[in-house]
Amino acid sequence: EVHLVESGGGLVQPGRSLRLSCVASGFNFDDHAMHWVRQAPGKDLEWVSGIAWNNVIIGYADSVKGRFTISRDNTKNSIYLQMNSLRLEDTAFYFCGKALVGPTTPLDSWGQGTLVAVSS
Amino acid sequence: EIVLTQSPGTLSLSPGERATLSCRPSPSVGSHYLGWYQQKPGQAPRLLVYGATSRAPGIPDRFSGGVSETDFTLTITRLEPEDFAVYYCQQFGTSPYTFGQGTRLEIK
């Protein structure tokens, strides 16, 4: 069974940094692209970033480009999201998602999310 | 960026009825690169359909995806009580991989 567990969320002041982690199990991790998707409380889903199996970065949402960096470590079955210069509008649940297969396939498994709250 | 416009915003129906949800991309997107998700309150999304028309594993056959000249559709025949949720489409052909704004399917 596929399991994705996010961690690293919390309360942070504007302008500060946070690093999210997602540990995966139950599938061959280095065969799949992985993504981060966020959802502000009561709002819609927003794709944040994705990374292919071979560390090629799929891209970033315009709202986070230049501030967030996605990475992965296939030896640890993990992906990461380094979030710098955080803004109030970055407050959201951040979900880690596994792509069906390659970088142009949908997310067929999701974690339960970790909450990032940006507030002064 | 590709904008996905979902309609209607809210759909009120009764159990047993048929639901048809629409997702219109602008500019266009290849059908291979369109998926549909269901999200219930407090839960992560669940993949229903990928490649516009292929059901994800374990998804009941009352869910089906379709393609017209301009729109993608998600049809749910014979609504069950557990189908009332928010539905999102997503394109994953061109980065950034945008989502639609969602259709809320509520019990009438």
What gap, in angstroms, lies between the N and C termini of chain A? 40 Å
- Main beta-sheet strand count, sense and barrel state of chain B: 6 strands, mixed
In percent, how helical is the residue content of chain B?
A: under 10%
From N to C, what is the helix and strand string of chain B?
EEEEEEEEEE
The total of beta strands of chain B comes to 10
Report strand % of chain B.
over 45%
Largest sheet of chain A at a glance? 7 strands, mixed
Question: Would you give an account of this structure?
Answer:
The complex is a heterodimer of chains A (120) and B (108). Chain A is an all-beta fold and 120 residues long. Chain A is 0% helix and 52% strand. The mean pLDDT of chain A is 97. The termini of chain A are far apart. Chain B is globular, with a radius of gyration of 13 Å.
In short:
Chain A is mostly beta strands and 120 residues long.
Keywords:
heterodimer, A: 120 residues, mainly beta, seven-stranded mixed β-sheet, four-stranded antiparallel β-sheet, 0% helix, B: 108 residues, six-stranded mixed β-sheet, 47% strand, globular
Question: What does the secondary structure layout of this molecule look like, with pairings?
Answer:
The complex is a heterodimer of chains A (120) and B (108).
Chain A: E1 3-7, E2 10-12, E3 18-25, E4 34-39, E5 45-51, E6 57-60, E7 68-73, E8 78-83, E9 92-99, E10 107-110, E11 114-118
Parallel strand pairs in A: 2-11
Antiparallel strand pairs in A: 1-3, 3-8, 4-5, 4-9, 5-6, 7-8, 9-10, 9-11
Chain B: E1 3-7, E2 10-13, E3 19-26, E4 34-39, E5 46-50, E6 54-55, E7 63-67, E8 72-76, E9 86-91, E10 103-107
Parallel strand pairs in B: 2-10
Antiparallel strand pairs in B: 1-3, 3-8, 4-5, 4-9, 5-6, 7-8, 9-10
